[in-house]
Design a protein that fits this description.
There is one protein chain. The protein is of the alpha/beta class. It has helices at 3-6, 9-27, 36-44, 58-67, 83-91, 105-115, 140-147, and strands at residues 49-53, 73-76, 95-98, 122-126. Strands 1-4-2-3 form a 4-stranded parallel β-sheet, sandwiched between helices. Helix 5 links the parallel strand 2 and strand 3 (95-98). Helix 2 crosses helix 5. The chain is globular and about 45 Å long.
């Protein structure tokens, strides 16, 4: 994590504003969770779980997990633009795996392999990146999860 960036006044202000905006948006959301029993059954087996979602919906998914109080690891880019969201995720109780498909991917894979050996680990990531193409799945993380199950 880049602490120099996190100490800049504009970064602190932007983080606070985004967190406030998200709080306001989430207040207006009506939550209807379908098939939560599938997640609960997976958790009862004490095996690692990989949660995948689209990049454009990650904030909603992360808020859902904060709301139902599950411990969760999230993959977060090391890019400067990602620092604000990474800070918010940490405030929500997420542990971060820092890296992306273009920077730090080997560190992400090594960390995920270690975490897949730990019972009750939940890892969340996006299957399409911010650069796109949107809603096109990259197979790396799912292949890794299947290999280490």
């Amino acid at each position: 994590m880049n602490n120099a960036i996190r100490k800049k006044p504009q970064y602190v202000i932007m983080t606070w504003l985004l967190q406030f905006l998200l709080f306001c948006v989430f207040l207006t959301c009506r939550w209807k969770i379908h098939n939560i029993e599938v997640l609960n059954q997976a958790r009862e087996k004490s095996r690692p779980i990989l949660i995948c979602c689209w990049h454009s919906r990650f904030v909603l998914v992360s808020r859902l997990f904060k709301k139902i109080h599950l411990p969760l690891w999230a993959v977060s880019s090391t890019h400067r633009d990602s620092e604000i969201m990474a800070t918010i995720l940490q405030k929500w109780g997420f542990k971060l795996i820092r890296g992306s498909s273009t920077r730090g991917w080997s560190r992400v894979l090594k960390t995920m392999i270690k975490l897949f050996r730990v019972e009750n680990t939940i890892i969340a990531l996006t299957k399409d990146g911010p650069k796109g193409p949107p809603h096109i799945t990259k197979k790396g993380a799912v292949s890794l999860a299947i290999k280490h199950r």
